[in-house]
Amino acid sequence: MPPPLCSRVLLSHPFSPMSLMALREQLNMLVNSMYIEGLLDQQFQQLQMLQDASSPGFVAEVITLFCEDAERILTELTKLVDQAVVEFQKVDAYVHQLKGSSSSVGAQNVKLACIQFRQFCEENNKDGCLNALNVVKHHYYLLRNKFDTMLQLEQRIQAYDSKQQN
Amino acid sequence: MSSPRGGDKEGGRDGERQIHVLAVDDSSVDRAVIAKLLRSSKYRVTAVDSAKKALELLGTEPNVNMIITDYSMPEMTGYELLKRVKESPTLREIPVVIMSSENDPDKINRCLEEGAEDFLLKPVRPSDVSRLCGRMRS
């Protein structure tokens, strides 16, 4: 038996209370799953707590900055680790930067992968560095996909809130 | 007659100068986070991405109440910035706090011996910022 007409209208309307609730629930479930899977740690919670009415886009801003930074660094690392003679100090400096920014944003798996990467740099282990770079990339792109979804959901929720206020 | 309470500027009260913190970090992510942490405590914040820019700003605006700087930065480190500030007759009274992601006792001691007010481990937390409250230059 199909749901009553009023429910169908509410479910299908883009700004219906039901769809807003569903969006919020989807966002919460996504973020919770990211904590459970180790993609995020407590530091991300700190960022969420810093976001307020005066800076509603704070988390999105930090995520965007992190992704820009990470991709710039990964590009440089790819070039450096691909050299015949690897400049391990330079590689380490970049990995240190990425470890720092991933720590600040709460990107746990990326941070841990960077810590392992630095070990290989210290050992001047080129194969180790190549593998570690792939691991970092794996964790980063997994995280970025989830961040993209998170930001899209937040934008839709904020669009609804703006519409309600106008 | 007392001045009216409440102001239209971020933080502070009418008639009282808002505390100004200079944040120095080459990481855009860390700059955004530390600036937000400080603004949440109602400080006025100027964030720059290098020690060189920090010194340029201090040259034109020395009335900064605190400098909070990352240790590891290219060209000039936070430690070198700390030394330059403490060597300057106009800037030496400004408290300097160092931030680092590395818990290196030698590094920490070196900074404290050079006159750093405090050493914070990254990621910096709201509780870290709270404990700096009473140590701003008045």
CATH level-two architecture of the domain at 57-160 in chain A: Up-down Bundle
Mean pLDDT across residues of chain B: 87
Q: How much β-strand is present in the residues of chain A?
A: under 5%
Please give the most extensive interface between any two protein chains, plus how many residues each contributes: A-B, 23 and 16 residues
Using the coordinates shown, work out and report the CATH topology of chain B.
Rossmann fold
Structural class of chain B: alpha/beta
The SS-based structural class of chain A is mainly alpha
Largest sheet geometry of chain A: none
Radius of gyration of chain A: 20 Å
Counted beta strands of chain B: 5
In the CATH hierarchy, the third-tier topology of the domain at 57-160 in chain A is known as: Four Helix Bundle (Hemerythrin (Met), subunit A)
Strand fraction of chain B: 15-25%
Helical percentage of chain A: over 70%
| Spans of at least 5 consecutive residues with low confidence of chain A | 3-12
Main location (chain A): cytoplasm
Keywords (chain A): Cytokinin signaling pathway, Cytoplasm, Nucleus, Phosphoprotein, Two-component regulatory system
Protein name (chain A): Histidine-containing phosphotransfer protein
GO molecular function (chain A): histidine phosphotransfer kinase activity; protein histidine kinase binding
Description of the molecule:
The complex is a heterodimer of chains A (166) and B (138). With 166 residues, chain A is mainly alpha-helical. Chain A has a domain at 57-160: Four Helix Bundle (Hemerythrin (Met), subunit A). Chain A is built from seven helices and no strands. Chain B has helices at residues 28-40, 51-60, 78-87, 105-113, 126-132; strands spanning 20-24, 44-48, 66-70, 96-100, 118-121. A five-stranded parallel beta sheet of chain B has the order 2-1-3-4-5, sandwiched between helices. In chain B, α2 (51-60) packs parallel to α3 (78-87). The longest helix of chain B is centred in the N-terminal third of the chain and has 13 residues, at 28-40. Chain B is globular. The A-B interface holds A 43, 46-47, 49-50, 52, 55, 58, 61-62, 65-66, 68-69, 96-97, 99-101, 103-106 and B 27-30, 32-33, 36-37, 39-40, 72, 101, 122-123, 125-126.
